[in-house]
Specification:
14-stranded mixed sheet, outer membrane lipoprotein receptor (LolB), chain A, elongated, single chain, 291 residues
Length: 291
């Protein structure tokens, strides 16, 4: 009798455990739209080799772009937006860039800017102002267009890890895998170890669905994010080079975001001799910004 009672109690306890377990966990088949996308694989050496090859591509660029620019926001309390304007970009790497923004339909110049990597010049005809300054000059909190430095655009348009590879004793790289949403990424971090403290310089995100670079992040002192660039809509040009057609450049410190979508692009063609010659218009106010 006792054995029978003990057996029954044992069965009851087992059932209770099974019921409790079923309440804690359950299986559910995830729908296709919630699953991770297929991810390609590559070794660290292969990834660095590909980044090095991309760094050497497209030494010059000319293009027409559609622009969306917003400046200001949480810090300033004022948001300025320019929607669906047109721009013209000319680049001669590694330092020269010209960027011109024109108004829709009438095509009058809103801003024209050039940089040679040391000095930048910006003409803003609507305000009759001409800015000249060192590329490291402080920003102008009252003028979104003046904060749109051509050097920031140049940094955003291209990926170049060659300076890091040339100084392996001063710059180290680390590779990690991560996921965001349904996508898997390889992320390279480049860290300067030249000083007494290591400093994060740059992160490059490689989308493992197509092995294209999807994001570039540049960092300043104390790990402050200075530039965040997202790349999308890659297209293969006539010479076989793969180049993104859409760029979203964010500068958190200056509070502006610029989206550029290329409508027309040519790579590595001869540039006009005066492509980077920008002079002050007659009667324009000259504003010099010191570093």
């Amino acid at each position: 009798m006792k054995n029978t009672l003990g057996s029954k109690l044992g069965i009851v306890l087992i059932l209770l455990v099974l019921v409790a377990a079923s309440c804690i966990s359950r299986k559910r088949v995830l729908p296709q739209e919630e699953r991770l996308l297929p991810a390609k694989t590559a070794t660290r050496a292969e990834l660095l080799q590909d980044l090095d090859a991309r760094s050497k591509e497209a030494q010059s660029l000319q293009g027409t772009v559609s622009l969306d620019l917003s400046g200001g926001g949480a810090k300033s309390g004022v948001l300025t937006e320019y929607h669906q304007t047109t721009g013209y970009v000319v680049v001669d790497r590694p330092r020269n860039i010209r960027f011109k923004v024109v108004a829709p339909i009438v095509l009058s110049t809103i801003a024209d800017m050039v940089s040679d990597g040391r000095q930048y010049r910006i003409s803003i005809p609507v305000k009759n102002q001409f800015f000249v300054g060192d590329v490291n000059a402080p920003m102008n909190p009252k003028t979104t267009l003046a904060n749109l430095r051509p050097q920031h655009l140049l940094d955003g348009l291209f990926v170049d890890i060659r300076p890091y590879l040339k100084n392996p004793n001063q710059v180290k790289s680390a590779l990690e895998e991560t996921t965001e949403g349904r996508r898997s990424f390889y992320v390279f971090s480049f860290v300067s170890v030249a000083g007494s403290e290591a400093q994060l310089l740059e992160k490059l995100w490689i989308d493992r669905t197509d092995m294209q670079i999807s994001r570039k992040q540049l960092f300043g002192k104390d790990g402050r994010l200075e530039t965040n660039v997202e790349y999308s809509n890659y297209a293969t040009e006539a010479d076989g080079q793969s180049f993104p057609q859409t760029f979203v450049i964010q500068r958190p410190v200056e509070e502006y975001t610029l989206k550029m979508t290329f409508l027309k692009m040519t790579l590595d063609e001869k540039l006009a001799d005066d492509a980077f010659n920008l002079q002050p218009p007659d009667g324009a106010e000259l504003v010099r910004l010191a570093p």
